């Protein structure tokens, strides 16, 4: 550290103090103050960029706090669970005795894919997993360790709180994957609220997406030093859609968030070279709620993060120094690229005619390539990825009425209408920025196959035990925007199309929809 300070002191007037560290990190000293007129500010050096990374603070008290906060996450749902025993009794197959515990700890017979409700398995469990993961992250643990802690928290619930039930494998998987694939990007986004220049909107958002970390920060007990500067794009939009699902078209109101950041000071900065990005440094979260005349009609949440990746850049000074609002690119020209292993989560509940279509897809892991071109305030960005998935999805082939008897509860498909699946996804996104014009095209495709042979009561494909159920989903969104008056506001024309197809035992069902509308987009 003394050697680095001495080096910065020798460089003195050649390096502006604002580039060395955040203003709150290092106060100006005689050694750093220039003694003669200086040249125009130059791009930060690689050494300076290295110094900007946030590091977890090691505290001996973090383990007790971790345990207390983990318990706080488990206690409210535990109270709900034991206050509603009438809803739980149908799953009680074990007792608190040696025989049950020996079965749970030594036999695969205690493992099952449960028959729980959609809201419990696909909504409450992912939220619990993301919170448990963020408790560990807020206490200074890395993403890998936090995933292990998340899994242990889920196992505590399955083995101790639900001791009368068989262990739900789907819950263990859902909690653990939601932690790293949803909790991590939300944690990264939430840290932007730590910055002294954070707007009130970003500060408020931080409490929603990363509440544990914000509580630590508000109490002066943050696990992280002052956050690094990050390239970011935070957009809120509101608008309306005209929707056609094959019957009479209808209208919807829409509210959407689109949040993206890259926590790497080299991203979009003048210079050339390559660097490994820290896990989770590239984060993207999108959320949308739609309202029709008779109530909610769509809830959608998508997240993306990466496990490991390499970022290359070759950016030189030049071009228009006026930034594109929220897009960066302060007077640099050149190209960059990213190649890594990434993952994400895609949740959608959509009203289709007289039914609700549900899908929760975890993009567990896969390659992701991103290419970019910078021309000052103008740029284009293209990414493509392919992922191996696990999922829960409503069997589209059967429509709103299940053909199977609801009792006895042998499988989740038979009694609830959705099933557990493996699958694969492809995605591609192209974003063009040429102020005042903006364009964005996003396409995704999912192919899903039912996991057979592990039902709560396995009937090996007999009547009432459907096997080999499949679903395919394709969605494309295109938007064209213009910002004629304010730098942080634009108007956008949007077009969405989607196709759903389900099949089983010679039966097929396919539905499609297209909608178009107008949004007002505000960057913050």
Walk me through what this model shows:
The strands form two sheets. A twelve-stranded antiparallel beta barrel has the order 3-4-6-7-8-9-10-11-12-13-14-15. A two-stranded parallel sheet has the order 1-2. The radius of gyration is 25 Å and the shape is globular. It has twelve helices and 15 strands. With 524 residues, it is an alpha+beta fold. Helix 4 runs antiparallel to helix 7, helix 7 crosses helix 8 and helix 10 crosses helix 11. Strand 9 and strand 10 form a beta hairpin.
Question: What is the helix fraction of residues, given as a range?
Answer: 25-40%
| Helix-strand pattern | HHHHHHEHHEHHHEEEEEEEEHEEEEE
Largest sheet: 12 strands, antiparallel, barrel
**Helical segment count:** 12
Shape, please? globular
Determine the strand fraction and express it as a percent band: 35-45%
- The structural class is alpha+beta
Strand order of the largest sheet: 3-4-6-7-8-9-10-11-12-13-14-15
Count of β-strands: 15
**Uncertain spans, ≥5 residues at pLDDT below 50?**
1-44, 47-52
Query: What does the radius of gyration come to?
Result: 25 Å
* Mean pLDDT over the full residue set: 85
Distance between the termini: 36 Å
């Amino acid at each position: 550290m003394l050697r680095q300070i001495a080096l910065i002191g020798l460089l003195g007037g050649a390096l502006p103090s604002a580039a060395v560290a955040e203003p709150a990190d290092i106060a100006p000293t005689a050694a750093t103050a220039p003694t003669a007129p200086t040249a125009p500010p130059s791009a930060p050096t690689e050494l300076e960029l290295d110094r900007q990374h946030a590091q977890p603070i090691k505290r001996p008290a973090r383990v007790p706090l971790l345990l207390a906060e983990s318990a706080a996450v488990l206690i409210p749902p535990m109270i709900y669970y034991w206050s509603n025993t009438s809803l739980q009794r149908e799953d009680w197959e074990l007792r608190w005795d040696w025989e049950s515990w020996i079965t749970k700890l030594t036999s695969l017979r205690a493992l099952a894919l449960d028959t729980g409700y959609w809201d419990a398995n696909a909504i409450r469990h992912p939220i619990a997993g993301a919170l448990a993961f963020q408790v560990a992250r807020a206490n200074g643990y890395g993403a890998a360790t936090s995933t292990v802690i998340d899994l242990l928290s889920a196992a505590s619930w399955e083995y101790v709180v639900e001791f009368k039930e068989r262990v739900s494998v789907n819950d263990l998987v859902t909690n653990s994957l939601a932690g790293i694939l949803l909790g991590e990007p939300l944690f990264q986004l939430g840290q932007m609220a730590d910055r002294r220049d954070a707007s009130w909107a970003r500060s408020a958002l931080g409490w929603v997406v990363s509440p544990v970390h914000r509580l630590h920060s508000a109490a002066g007990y943050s696990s992280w030093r002052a956050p690094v500067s990050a390239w970011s794009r935070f957009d809120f939009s509101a608008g309306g859609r005209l929707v056609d699902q094959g019957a009479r078209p209808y209208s919807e109101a829409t509210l959407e968030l689109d949040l993206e950041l890259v926590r790497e000071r080299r991203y979009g900065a003048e210079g050339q070279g390559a660097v490994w990005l820290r896990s989770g440094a590239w984060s993207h979260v999108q959320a949308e709620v739609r309202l029709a005349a008779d109530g909610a009609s769509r809830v959608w949440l998508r997240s993306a993060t990466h496990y490991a990746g390499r970022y290359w850049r070759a950016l030189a000074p030049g071009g228009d120094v006026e930034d594109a609002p929220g897009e960066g690119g302060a007077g640099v020209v050149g190209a960059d690229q990213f190649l890594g292993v990434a993952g994400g989560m895609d949740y959608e509940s959509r009203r289709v005619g007289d039914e609700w279509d549900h899908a929760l897809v975890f993009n567990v892991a896969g390659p992701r390539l991103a290419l970019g071109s910078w021309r000052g305030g103008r740029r284009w960005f293209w990414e493509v990825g392919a992922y191996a998935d696990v999922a829960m999805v409503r069997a589209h082939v059967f429509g709103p009425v299940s053909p199977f008897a609801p009792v006895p509860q042998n499988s989740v498909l038979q009694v609830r209408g959705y099933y557990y699946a493996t699958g694969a996804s492809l995605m591609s996104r192209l974003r063009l920025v040429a102020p005042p014009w903006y364009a964005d095209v996003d396409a995704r495709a999912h192919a899903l196959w039912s996991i057979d042979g592990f039902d709560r009561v396995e009937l090996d494909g007999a009547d009432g035990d459907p096997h080999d159920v499949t679903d395919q989903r394709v969605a494309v969104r295109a938007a064209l925007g213009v910002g004629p008056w304010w730098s942080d506001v634009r108007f956008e024309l949007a077009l969405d199309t989607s196709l759903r197809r389900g099949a089983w035992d010679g039966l097929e069902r396919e539905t499609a929809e297209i909608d178009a509308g107008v949004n007002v987009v505000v960057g913050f």
